[in-house]
Design goal:
Strand content: 5-15%
Distance between the termini: 40 Å
Structural class: alpha/beta
Radius of gyration: 21 Å
Largest sheet: 4 strands, mixed
Number of domains: 2
Length: about 375
């Protein structure tokens, strides 16, 4: 926490706005727009809810295909199925670990020849690094497909000097407890398309028509963020850039600690942007380092230090068994060898040295 959250919560309590409406909610949305440069946004209960609203907003419907990153968290792609659409998983490129634009274009070309309707393309900004937005957008525009960017992990990052997701049909962000800033749970749908955001705001409050009684012409969702959580978000937004700075410092300290170590590599930073380095991730080559990533994870766990494998690709998940994939070798390699190190901004420099020291002790 930043330290200012309780004062913001008290403001909301004093005004007696505790429901999914109120001045703090409006202020939080305004602060988000000022930070990111988007024209319009709506705050909702989670990043997953934001993706659901975004996909519905761009017209994804039953029977459509949605092309999505395979190397991501399940909350990024499960909303595809909420709408009766089918995910097709696109592999990563090794330079950025994000959706490969070349594989995306080849698959869109194939689907067009087959006469299948593609409702949207949904890349993820992995571990805080933007996908190659311009290249992906060019491909989407060529095939007249809407682009929705999952920027849940990349708030505070930039792509060619602008906020991640800026320029897509829509982008979503997350304020879950593990994100760079948090209000304990929440998400944001952002776009420069006013009509899309107005429709999402309407759907997020059970699609209630503007009449005195409760009238509904279509089915909506209970997705609106509460005013209390928005109050927390106001204070959190004020320290976003401090958090980005600290995340990048943590990454740099790990790099310095492992500089001379064979068999450990870090997620590269693409030359088109600046990552918030949400999580510091390493690739472990067991032949060069002497042990594999799982042995490192278990050794850290014995010292009450949590680390985790990087995301298991969606095309390997049992729940998506039988779904189409394009490529897969890159994301499978990253999952097999990749480990997320402790990266929270509450870490002290001594904490980082301790983690790094334990890892280095495991060398052959």
């Amino acid at each position: 926490m930043s330290g200012g959250e309780m004062a913001e919560i008290q403001r909301a309590f004093d005004a007696n706005f505790v429901a999914p409406a109120g001045p703090q909610l409006q202020e939080f949305e305004a602060s988000f727009l000022a930070e990111t440069g988007f024209k319009f946004c709506v705050a909702v209960t989670s990043g997953t809810a934001a993706i659901h609203l975004a996909l519905r907003g761009v017209g994804v419907k039953n029977g459509d295909v949605v092309l999505a990153s395979s190397l991501t968290f399940i909350g990024s792609v499960s909303p595809i199925t909420f709408l009766g659409a089918t995910p097709v998983f696109i592999d990563s490129d090794p330079e950025t670990w994000n959706m490969c634009p070349l594989l995306l274009e080849s698959q869109l070309s194939l689907l067009k020849r087959e006469g299948r309707n593609v409702g949207a393309v949904l890349p993820t900004d992995l571990y805080g690094q933007s996908c190659d937005l311009d290249r992906i957008r060019e491909v989407c525009e060529k095939y007249c497909v809407p682009l929705v960017v999952d920027s849940a992990e990349s708030l505070g990052s930039t792509y060619r000097g602008k906020s991640t997701g800026k320029g897509a049909s829509a982008a979503i962000f997350s304020f879950n407890g593990n994100k760079i800033i948090t209000n304990s749970g929440g998400g944001m749908l952002a776009s420069d398309d006013e009509a899309l955001i107005c429709e999402a705001r309407y759907l997020s409050t059970q699609a209630r028509d503007p009449v005195p009684h409760f009238e509904h012409r279509e089915l909506g969702y209970n997705y609106r963020m509460s005013n209390i959580l928005a109050a927390i978000g106001i204070s959190q937004m004020s320290v976003l850039q401090e958090r980005v700075t600290r995340k990048r410092e943590i990454f740099s300290r790990y790099v310095n600690e492992f500089e001379e170590i064979e068999g450990l590599k870090f997620m590269p930073e693409a030359n088109y942007g600046r990552s918030n380095r949400w999580l510091t991730t390493i690739l472990v080559d067991p032949k060069l380092f002497g042990v594999d990533k799982e042995q490192i994870r278990l050794a850290l766990e014995l010292e009450n230090i949590e680390s985790r494998p990087i995301w298991k690709p969606m095309h390997l998940q049992p729940v998506f068994e039988g779904c189409e994939k394009v490529g897969g070798g890159v994301s499978e390699y990253l999952f097999e060898h990749g480990l997320c190190l402790p990266s929270g901004t509450a870490l002290s420099d001594g904490d980082i040295e301790r983690v790094a020291g334990l890892v280095k002790q495991l060398r052959r």
